[in-house]
Design a protein that fits this description.
CATH class of the largest domain in chain B: Alpha Beta
Distance between the termini of chain A: 20 Å
Keywords (chain A): 4Fe-4S, Electron transport, Iron, Iron-sulfur, Metal-binding, Transport
Shape of chain A: globular
Number of helices of chain A: 5
Mean pLDDT of chain B: 94
Radius of gyration of chain A: 15 Å
Largest interface: A-B, 30 and 41 residues
Low-confidence stretches of chain B: none
CATH superfamily of the largest domain in chain B: Aldehyde ferredoxin oxidoreductase, N-terminal domain
CATH architecture of the largest domain in chain B: 4-Layer Sandwich
Shape of chain B: globular
Organism (chain A): Candidatus Heimdallarchaeum aukensis
InterPro entries (chain A): 4Fe4S_Fe-S-bd, 4Fe4S_Fe_S_CS, RnfB_subfamily
Largest sheet of chain A: 2 strands, antiparallel
Distance between the termini of chain B: 52 Å
Protein name (chain A): 4Fe-4S dicluster domain-containing protein
Number of domains of chain B: 3
Oligomer: heterodimer
Pfam families (chain A): Fer4_7 (PF12838)
CATH class of chain A: Alpha Beta
Number of helices of chain B: 24
Number of domains of chain A: 1
Amino acid sequence: MIKRIFADTKRCNGCRICELRCSFEHDRVFGTKLARIRIIMNEEQGEYKPNTCRLCYKCIKACPENAISKNEKTGAIKIDHELCTGCGKCVEACPFNVMFLHPIKEKAITCDLCEGDPQCVKYCPEKVLFYTTSQEFKKLTN
Amino acid sequence: MVGELKVLYPNILEINLSDLSFEIYESENLFDKYMGGIGVGIELLNQHLQTGVDPLSPENVVIFAIGPLNTYFPVASKTCAVFKSPLTGNLGESYAGGRLSTAMRFNNLGVIILKGKSPEPIYFVSYEDGVQFVNAKPLMYMSPNTTGRIIREKIGHPGNRSVVTIGPAGERLIPYACATVDRTRHFGRTGLGAVLGSKNVKGFAIIGDQPISLESNTNYKQYRRVFREIYKKTTETNLMAKYHVLGTAAGILPLNALKSLPTKNFAESYFEEAENISGEYFASELLGKRVACGGCPIGCIHLAILRERWEKGTVADIHSIAVSYDYELIYALGSNLKIGNAKDILKLIEAIEKEGMDAISTGVVLAWLAEAYERNLISPKDTEGELIRFGRVDDFLSIIGKISKATEESELYYTASKGVEALVEKYGGNDFGIRVAKLEPAGYRTGYYAIMGFLVGGRHSHLDNAGYSLDQKVLNKPITFEQGMNSLMNEEEWRNVLNSMVICLFARGVYDMNTTIQALESLKINRTDEELLKIGKEIQRKRLQFKYAEGFSLKEAYQKFPKRFTEMMTAHGYLEKENFDKLLALYSKEAEKRYAIKVD
């Protein structure tokens, strides 16, 4: 079974350390626009929902340059920035709105599961995020 | 672009409201010299504000400032606001969390200066490349949160913005009106809401979404290490656990047990119904969710769900609202009013939130009214037929709006809208007029140092020097008065340093001297112990200098102490006037020595 990032959204407190940590690890910057995990915020209700790649692989099929593939070790999306032209086809194809264009490099970016050690999960203070299989996640949250 | 935002050299946004113009310029060596937060704030206030101006005139100036650690480190999540206070008439200083400091950081703004007065009600939005002024006439007299919702709908950029708003109380220039940040946080104390109202600023939004480079701004390896250490300390040790689990409301039961919980307008120090309004009760019965300020792993903002039934005959029969609660609100609107029902406290919080008033000041004003009514100092004619009785939530609910909306014709409520000091001047009742230097105090009847802390603190807040905490520390370890006053002053100087960073003071246990120095060093800011302490002392000198130049009189504030301070039971027993005299003399002597200014 492939492991991916799951979120027990009810408990998310909106601190957004996952976003900061993600951009920190990947680009050595703090920037919510550079994060591969994003918090969807409903400020009126105080509801926050982490959103990241579900590994549906629709982007792989959508890429005209064959720049996107599956990381064999983790099953995560792997994007070859040498091949990526920033055409945005994958961004359009992503049903969860978690494929982004890097605002500076103008190449596609999405969650790469940090080579199997996702930093957002590690640093989530509320332990909202889990790196696990869907079966395990169900058990954990029941 | 990444890399352009530097820790020490953020920009200054200066807005002249009179002609709705703005200027963005570099801060040059301002942050290098004065750190940030209150250090930068007090310096700029001195530069831009003329002595003696009316706090509600266009000549007043508001400075918002963040500091070097904001966003870079966990729990460095506050923004400092400095201005001349319409409530105390001297230093107005307030701190708020939410996402404001993060939005300012990602907008590359270190400071926002507001000057003048807009000809019409407006709100403004600060984008990456400039400021837009928007007509706020349709928003007039709306609650802070409705205003916030409308502004958010209009400006877009969800998730990358912070919105500050005022309510009707701010527009009506009530000197203890607050400014609300991102729904649940407030610049509560000393009346920022009224100052914004006097400038015709209904609110403002900061959009911040530029990435900041960690590589060029930090000693990267050291930064990673220090970040990890601070993160671990905040989440894995018990240094901050209480703020997460029960929140500040955790203090209700211990303070009650110590006979230090102000009850019935400070007349009593023990509330028999404390169990029903304790942090434990709120958490188990009413807590809906904990949320966090931007970049803070603690999540101390406790939102209770207040469920209310609609009137019979309506289709939807129930509605629920999220109300944020804290220790101070539970004291001010609970024990101090003898309200022993947690839901009733939430109703009061919500009513005050809608008007946009500081909950501590409002609670103490309500308590004075209830006591004056009980003692027949004010008559039913004064109250316009309203009953104002301790323990009756409906009495208080029906007068909150009257206070917020009062005109001069409605004498009692109009005076109440100016604070306890004004009430005492008009109606007497100084013996139970609970305020220190015109500010209604936070909820601590712990002993001498809490009260003296209020008196000698730069902004007369319990957070200036935490006298209430010193009182508790010395319960089993007595110290001399001289040591006590020195300790208060040292604490205030150190807090000036932390307030320059600008960290949340809940994390003061995490940011000790060594950690602070290392965090700064990892951002390429090298400071020694002595240098930081010197900065703290210098800031204190400037804060005091500002106060005395604006006419603050320590002696006068002391003489106005309500008799109740010497009649009340505390954790340290009854307090005696002679000892207050001694403490004041010790303070004056030491302050003159430390800051080389005449303190009287």
